[in-house]
Amino acid sequence: MADLWPSTLPQKLNVQGHQYTFGDISIRSNPSVGPSKVRPRSSAIASPLQGMMYLTTAQLQTLETFYKVTVRGSDVFIFPDPENPSSATLYCRFTGSPSISATSAAGMWAVGLPMEVIP
Predict the structure, then answer these.
(1) Most buried of 39, 60, 79, 105, CB within 10 angstroms?
(2) How confident is the model at residue 64 (pLDDT cuts 50, 70, 90)?
(3) What is the number of domains present in the chain?
């Protein structure tokens, strides 16, 4: 069973910096002569999801534990749907380490979350 996104962390991504794209459903190959060949990749394609949250220092420690210990950077977890946070959830996993930047407010951090939505 997938782990839940911690309830002590924000339950939605910031509007600014939120980016969702459809997964690449085709695969291309370029032969030595002639046009490219294109075919469907699969019917189950992960879709990239990039987002940002502002976290306190305590929340940042919670995220670090969740990332390093709970999901070990690669396990699937249940995340609130950024488009419909009140009722829907998504199965996600991290595609890289969260990026952490200082903000002008003491004790607040801007955290980038590189994820993908698993079908």
Answers:
(1) 79
(2) very high
(3) 1
